[in-house]
Amino acid sequence: MSTAPAPAPPAASAPADRRRVVLTGFGVISSIGTGVEEYTAGLRAGRSGARPITVFDTEGFGQNIACEVPDFDPRAWIRNIPLDDVGRAGQFAVSAARMAVEDAGLTEADLGDRQAVITVGTTDGESHDIALLLEQELAAGDPEAMDPALSRRINAGRLSTAIARELRMPNVEAVTVTTACAAGNYSIGYGLDAIRSGEVDIALCGGADAVCRKAFALFKRFGALTPDVVRPFDKDRQGILTGEGAGILVLESLESALARGARIHAEVLGYGLSCDAAHPTAPNREGIARGIRRALDDAGVKEQEIDFISAHGTGTKANDRTESAAILDVYGDAAPRTVAVKSMLGHSMGAASALGAIACGLAIEHGFIPPTINHRETDPECPLDVVPNEAVDADVRVVQNNSSAFAGNNAVLILGTYGERVSP
Questions:
Q1: How do beta strands 409-416 and 266-275 pair?
Q2: Residue 380: which pLDDT band, with cuts at 50, 70 and 90?
Q3: If you average pLDDT over residues 205-214, what whole number do you get?
Q4: How confident is the model over 116-155, as pLDDT tens digits?
Q5: Which among 133, 290, 360, 361 could bridge 399 via Cys, Cβ 3.0 to 4.6 Å?
Q6: Active site residues
Q7: Pairwise CA distance, residues 405 & 148, whole Å
Q8: Is 356 helix (H, G, I), strand (E, B) or coil?
Q9: Using CA atoms, how far apart are residues 238 and 317, in angstroms rounded to an integer?
Q10: Distance (Å, rounded) from C-alpha 188 to C-alpha 181?
Q11: pLDDT digits (tens, 9 = 90+) for 348-364
Q12: Within 10 A of 275 (CB to CB), how many other CB atoms are there?
């Protein structure tokens, strides 16, 4: 394992005595690749995860496309807990956690009784299993017909506790965060705070969700599903594709990472939250801008230091227009390049911003900006450089990862290269 470079001084406006937090492990399950290598290749190539839905019956919906994870075999990663203890979302979460700790060069023996935090964000939890249980009850006309194994595993709290059981980590705080489509960034922020405070030296954070009939039907009823592909910021965009997967990140205090000679993917510089609660579903421009400013302030980063923004970028008319306006409110005409990985991944709900954060970390580590695919013509109401269709090589040092959710929950994460800092 390579030795990390010597630490750089903290950013000028960040508290000098605050513990620094780095990313030492990534675990990825996505519709464009499983594992860090496949995911990186998918991002670089602008791969699309859109494919026909196989997990549930779409008869009557008039469309059947989502961004499912293909050929997923949890037995490759889950070794210590029975597979039927967790549903599809839980299997994603546990498998991604196993990948992340192995990527970090950690073993079960290393983790042992170590104090740690595990946080997993989700929107739908095991809603696919809930739908199966309802089908069983309706078919039999009797709630006793519901499968007890399915019933036991529908508690969303199992997304985090199952990771602790699988990795044999008894001395952890295991939290499931349910702030919908911003939950991945919320979870990372939770772990960041726990390490900064000195409570723990390590945290496993991210998000997981599985394609389910509930989410598909909800967005269909809203008129928010695209009939073909996701085109964020394009003038002809028509909506989202539901997606699935998991992204789990190993956050570690810099001292801990250096002590064991860990490879460091990137540094977590800061995050910002805002909850405007202006509308149940519509995004709020001021709330998003407030979250961005809080993240920049927490990170001690100036606007001109941001090399690109990984946008929430759902591909709906309202989201892209409002998010673009909020970005311009903060950055003005000098807005950074702004990309939407949901053009490739679809909207993986609670996993979305965690997968976005990993994409940002990989972009920093490997020196590229992923593209916004399916792009034809930028909407004049979204006047941003969206890196259309092809990735670009770039010296990436500081990246912003946006996420927003129903009820105005916004979470913005700032990641940076570890080692040399960009001068304000």
A1: antiparallel
A2: very high
A3: 96
A4: 999 999 999 998 888 888 888 888 888 888 888 888 888 8
A5: 360
A6: 181, 312, 347
A7: 33
A8: helix
A9: 7
A10: 13
A11: 999 999 999 999 999 99
A12: 17
Q: Measured between alpha carbons, how far is residue 200 from residues 105, 116, 269 in Å?
A: 18, 5, 17
Helix (H) or strand (E) holding 245: strand 245-253
CA-closest candidate to residue 401, choices 414, 390, 392: 414
Tokens of 308: 């690109």
407/240 Cα distance (integer angstroms): 18
> What pLDDT score does 14 carry?
58
Residues 252/201, Cβ–Cβ less than 8 Å: yes
Structure-token match 């939290």, residue found: 175
Give the residue from 257, 413, 231 showing the smallest Cα distance to 316: 231
333 φ, ψ to 5°? -70, -15
Give the angle subtended at the CA of 98 by the CAs of 50 and 69, to the nearest 5°.
Answer: 10
What span, in angstroms and rounded, lies between the C-alpha atoms of 400 and 321?
Answer: 18
For helices 158-166 and 88-103, the axis angle rounded to 10 degrees is 40
pTM of the model: 0.94
Handedness of CA 127, 179, 188, 163 (dihedral sign): negative
Distance of alpha carbon 77 from alpha carbon 28, whole angstroms: 12
The whole-angstrom distance between residue 216's C-alpha and the CA centroid of its chain comes to 19
CB atoms within 10 A of CB 333: 6
Rounded Cα–Cα distance for residues 195 and 192 (Å): 5
Copy the structure tokens of residue 284.
């709020």
Length of the chain: 424
